[in-house]
From TrEMBL:
Keyword Repeat annotated: no
Record GO cellular component, one term: membrane
Single GO term (MF): hydrolase activity
Protein name, entry field: AB hydrolase-1 domain-containing protein
Keywords for this protein: Hydrolase
Gene3D superfamilies registered for this protein in UniProt: alpha/beta hydrolase
Protein family (similarity comment): Belongs to the AB hydrolase superfamily.
């Protein structure tokens, strides 16, 4: 199961190792095709030395109050994550500062931002997707910023995958954090149907 970029990674894992995947659940995933890979790859390669230096540094990164961090999670996603739920993401990616009491720093590795090496050309993605034979659930969130670009993509994937279903659920890209009850029944129905 994956959300957003996590779907991109897990989808490609399922393509490469279908024998290891019993079920595939995609929550508002970013599975991209029809995209020129060269510019984003070049931009990342230009930035990688900086990311590498930051990741290997023994110095403590900049620290912030929890209120500042909540806004740092909330704003870049156009408010997709409700402020009251930002802590669900923060609790796994911050640590208390040793130098500034009451402040925290991000522990995430910036090198993980590189996802362009997972992007396959359209025809390659269509062909390799045929490897996935396990039951698959694709859930798009209606108000997601990714919805308009990817809805037609999912129509294509559903026609390729023999055991796939597609649903649209109201909510932003982070609806699973903001309003999990909106799709909990859908997930439970899928699990009851396919998982013993």
């Amino acid at each position: 199961m994956g959300h957003s970029m996590g779907c991109l990674i897990s989808y490609h894992y399922a393509i490469l190792y279908p024998q290891n995947v019993d079920l595939f659940l995609n929550l508002d995933g970013v599975i991209m095709w029809n995209m020129d890979r060269v510019p984003p790859m070049a931009a990342f390669m230009d930035s990688f030395p900086k990311f590498q230096e930051f990741a290997l540094s023994t110095s403590e990164p900049p620290s912030y109050t929890l209120e500042q961090m909540r806004l740092m999670i909330h704003k870049p996603h156009n408010g997709s994550i409700d402020l009251k739920h930002a802590d669900l993401l923060l609790e796994r990616s911050i640590a208390a500062s040793k130098h500034d009491p009451g402040k925290y720093y991000f522990t995430r590795d910036p090198r993980l931002k590189f996802n362009d090496h997972f992007i396959l050309a359209t025809e390659d993605l269509r062909e390799k997707s045929k490897n996935i034979v396990c039951p698959s659930l694709f859930v798009k969130f209606a108000q997601s910023s990714y919805s308009a670009a990817n809805t037609s993509l999912y129509d294509g994937l559903i026609s390729i995958l023999p055991n796939a279903e597609f649903h649209i659920v109201e909510g932003t890209h982070h609806a699973h954090l903001n309003n999990p009850e909106k799709f909990a029944a859908l997930l439970q129905q899928f699990m009851d149907k396919h998982y013993e």
